[in-house]
Amino acid sequence: MTVKQSTADDSNSTTRRNAWKSGYERLASASYAHGVWSVSNVRANHYDPTLGHPQAEELAQSRWTERVIREEDIAGAYFLHTHFSRFLAHDFLTFEIAGDRPIAVSKEIRYTPHYKWAVRRLALNMIRGTDTTCVIVAEEFDVMYLRTHIRQGEFLYVYPLALSREQARALFHNVMRSLAKENDPNHPIVLRNPLRQSCSGFALGHLARVPEAPSIPQWHYGRWLTAYSDRLLARLGLLRGVSHWDLQTSKRFFINNAVQACEQNEAYSLCWRQAIGVAS
Least C-beta-crowded within 10 Å: which of 100, 103, 145, 199? Predict the structure, then answer.
């Protein structure tokens, strides 16, 4: 259930270079009571596809929601793997919520929790060992629509995870706990080995073989990516309490071509699930 929605009206909110990395000044927070999570600053940007890229991303209308989510309503989880350049990749977890819109979660690295992501800064911080981690939360339709309809040359893959509802709820609980802990500006989590963590997307991009996207190098795909993703996410603290994490038994879907008819609205998530035949 969404309890509040706000639209940023400051000029900077509509001119940020990278829409997923924007909003660092509105870090998400979460609180828990009696099986219910209250999550604030969930990003829900709106993009105008008629502007073309990069204008549609740069001029995105920033929107923020507050979500109240009961753990018992978590119906499933998905692993999203996206190539945003020739050699780089990024991963998300998305959670399906009964009777409400799914949300997407990403673990990201900052100099401080409110510091904007930048490659040059990240390179310096890897040497200094001063990076911190934060958890970014957004509406699923925001991050997926951006990659399937707005950006050019970005390839998005979805794995319906082979988790029971109980395991999906346990995963969601641990992700929210991680959010509540790591997004606390008074107690930032400092990476002890930032070089290894910062290379995760680079390594995943090299390990992935993407036959549907010939512009991506044809590297071996399969258990290498599965094993690496498992270790990576476990190290990032997203798998505690989940005993069965099996990408090998989860069918992989190339999303971009399947969802071109899906509009950017609250029904987007249901639309892409129906398009690939995984709608509940």
Answer: 199
Residues constituting the chain: 280
Alpha helices in the chain (DSSP H): 55-58, 119-128, 140-145, 165-182, 194-198, 200-207, 223-235, 268-276
pLDDT tens digits, one per residue of 158-202: 888 777 888 888 888 888 887 777 666 555 444 444 333 334 443
Radius of gyration of the chain (CA): 18
Residue with tokens 């690496």: 228
> What's the CA gap between 220 and 105, in Å, rounded?
27
Rounded CA gap, 136 and 15, in Å? Answer: 19
Statement: residue 111 has pLDDT above 60: no
Alpha helix positions (H), 8-118: 55-58
200-207 and 223-235 helices, crossing angle to 10°? 170
Give the position of tokens 């990516």.
225
- Domain extents in the chain: 75-276
More confident residue, 83 or 190: 83
Closest CA to 248 of 169, 171, 159: 159
